[in-house]
Amino acid sequence: MGSVNRASLDQKLALAKRCSHEGVMAGAKAAVVATVAAAVPTLASVRMLPWARTNLNPTAQALIISTAAGMAYFIVADKTVLASARKNSFGASYKADI
C-alpha cells in the first residue's frame, strides 16, 4: 500500500465537503419546490372537495405536504452527491491515465 500524504487527504476531504454541500443545497431547493407543489393541490382540495374536507384534518394535510418535501430532499440530495462523486472519480482516473 502506497503512502498517503496529508495534502492528498486534505484535498479529498475538501472535495467530499463540497460534494455534500452541493447535495444539501440541491435537496433544499427541491424540497421548497415540492412543498409548494404539494401544498397547493392539498389545500385546494380540502377547500373544494367535501370528502377531503371531512377526512383530511390539519395533521393529515401537514403530513402529506411534509412527506413530499422530505422525499424530494433526500432523492435530489442523494442523486446530486452520487453524480458529483461519479464525476470526480472519473476525472481522477482520467487524470491518472494521462
UniProtKB/TrEMBL annotation:
InterPro entries attached here? Enod93 (IPR005050)
Question: Is this entry keyworded Transmembrane helix?
Answer: yes
PANTHER family hit by this protein: EARLY NODULIN-93
* Transmembrane portions of the chain: 26-46, 58-77
Q: Which Pfam families match?
A: ENOD93
Q: What is this protein called?
A: Early nodulin-93
| Annotated keywords | Membrane, Transmembrane, Transmembrane helix
Name the domain of life this protein comes from: Eukaryota
